[in-house]
Amino acid sequence: MNGITIDVRNLSKRFGMYSSPAKRLVDILCPFGRKNRPELWALKDVSFTVKHGETVGVIGRNGSGKSTLLQVLCGILRPTAGEVAVNGRVSALLELGAGFHPEFSGRENVYMNGAIMGLSRKEVDFRFQEIADFAEIGSFIEQPVRTYSSGMFVRLAFACAVNIAPDILIVDEALAVGDAHFQQKCKQKIMEFRENGGSMLLVSHDMESVKALCDSAILLDKGAVVESGDPARVVDRYQAINKQGY
Hints:
Layout: E1 4-16, H1 21-29, E2 39-51, E3 55-59, H2 66-73, E4 81-86, E5 90-93, H3 106-116, H4 121-135, H5 150-162, E6 168-172, H6 180-195, E7 199-203, H7 207-213, E8 216-221, E9 224-229, H8 231-244
Parallel strand pairs: 3-7, 3-8, 5-6, 6-7
Antiparallel strand pairs: 1-2, 1-4, 8-9
């Protein structure tokens, strides 16, 4: 495990398929009475590692298992089988601002997010101005986030995620948010994170970003890894699968 920040071994995730909420409730209350329940394997025997300072891209068509993989890595979902080891402080950009409280001010949400990530108040104090400057929302930092425009909301959410000194950054299409100026700031911040030795897992449909930012990549299709290694080769395989249409 030395030098490895994410270690995924034989990971599988199964979901039960239900025709109605009532049948799902019955299954939860009577787990030993399950009979012939339809199942969906969102992930099948997935294995890969992310080393210290490495950026790994995860690509695949919609429904290939990318979001499920990230949710397992972040502890939102539990694996059905296999092992996942994450070594270090993780900052995840899955749904920007998902942890924000709409009635709290921007400042209060910054401190709340810092506490959730395990930072002390002094540590957040030290980083607060950098977060506020990056977000570029001015005096709105003192207003409830429910008063923010979508652009302001995104700016503050990204600023919080990348400025809490994470060891591992998990990014799901976050580079596509905001205006061109903010997108460039995001990319620059991510480049700085990589240069400082941070590890990153990047999920994206932007193949040029994957080739430019990633040291290696994995291709998911129908829940399984079908290609891994050099980003250019993995992207070529992805494009071939899209052309074949299977």
